[in-house]
Amino acid sequence: MSKRWSLALASALITLSVAACGSPGQPGAPAGEGTAAASGGASGGPLKVGLVYSKSGPLASYGAQYRQGLTAGIDYATKGTGAVGGRTITITEADDAGDPAKAVASATDLIGQGNTIIAGSTSSGVALQVAPLAKDNKVLFISGPAAADAVTGANKYTFRSGRQTYQDVATAGSMLGDVTGKKVTVLAQDSAFGKANVAAVTAILGAKGATVDAVEVPAAATDLTPFATKVKTAAPDLLFVAWAGANATAMWTTLGQQGVFDQTKVVTGLDIKATHSLFGEVGTKIDFLSHFFEGAADNAAYQALDKGLKAQGGTVDLFTNDGFVAGQMIVHALEAGGDADAMVAALEGWSFEGPKGTLTIRPEDHALLQPMFTASLKQDGTNVVPERVDTLGAEAVAPPVTPFK
């Protein structure tokens, strides 16, 4: 079942109306879907945007943050009207549950309905499968939290509203000093996200003289002890942990039980708020690279994000930024008109102020150049909260240009 958002109110609150039962384009879908009138091609018709994201599945918490941020971002960019040029932005959402096949089917249906922009992709594996559809159908695709480097440069119709793995690893590298001759191990899940991190660490730190190996863990693994033992036996100078999903607590607990923190420097990305307390005593021993967190920055966009999330009963968190920025990008693209090439031209080279600071869409490959942060965790009463250590400028962590395929 799909849901449609009508963003016409001068409020960050979402008005959801459940569409007729049945997937779009299938029996039970609303009559007229896919026609010129339904696509908003007629003057004054709605501006249709499709949203395919992890509403359920292992990354559902990330998807929920992205969705709330998106609503706040569109509200901010349209000055509360939810419209561009007097035409309401209507969003039809589909749940891919983190499954690339479901995502491709949903995106295909949404394109068939006349949606000129597809947004979402919580999972890297999903984003890499949806991106080719943008090129084949000449629609705009704005990927969300998906971090795989391969999304950048995928094709001229594909953009991203979040960071990419290279920026994560470059930020981590800034904390490691001289790695020449050092041994670096990457602990990651055997997934598109995990493999992208292994490749990035190898490319960045390996090029600086480190010896890099990896311990890759099957996504379905429940006993993590053998993998933690392997890390301990390898005795790396540096352990880079790339992990996402519900079993993060078990992973960190197992690393602690195996004494990994006692013998090596551990670097990882700062995850969502709900995970900050799970590190326990080892949390203060970890060096965190950070894409975004509450209090990481403070500007007009950040304040609008904070206000918009509170109106929805949410709070600023890791991937609320990605949704907010996607909302800004969607509005800016729609202001250029409904033609895909015109929207691409409008976004290429665009610099704007997002919640984390100044962002620039690099024309050559659509990398989103952005500041990154390093952080530590501190105890604040009964809570564990992040504290910014440093801010790295966008150019300091900029990925190399990846020509379009």
Instruction: Please provide the ordered H/E string of secondary-structure elements.
Output: EEEHEEHEHEEHEHEHEHEEHHHEEEEE
**C-alpha-based Rg, rounded:** 21 Å
End-to-end distance: 34 Å
Number of helices: 10
Q: How confident overall, as mean pLDDT?
A: 87
Q: Structural class given helices, strands, pairing?
A: alpha/beta
Give the CA-based shape. globular
Helix coverage percent: 25-40%
Strand count, sense and closure of the main sheet? 8 strands, mixed
Low-pLDDT parts are 1-42
**Total number of strands:** 18
In terms of DSSP E residues, the strand content is: 15-25%
Task: Tell me what you see in this structure.
By secondary structure, the protein is of the alpha/beta class. The chain has ten helices and 18 strands. Strands 1, 2, 3, 4, 5, 6, 7 and 8 form an eight-stranded mixed sheet that branches. A seven-stranded mixed sheet has the order 10-9-11-12-13-17-18, with helices on both faces. The protein has a three-stranded antiparallel sheet with strand order 14-15-16. The protein is globular and about 65 Å long. The model is unreliable at 1-42 (pLDDT under 50).
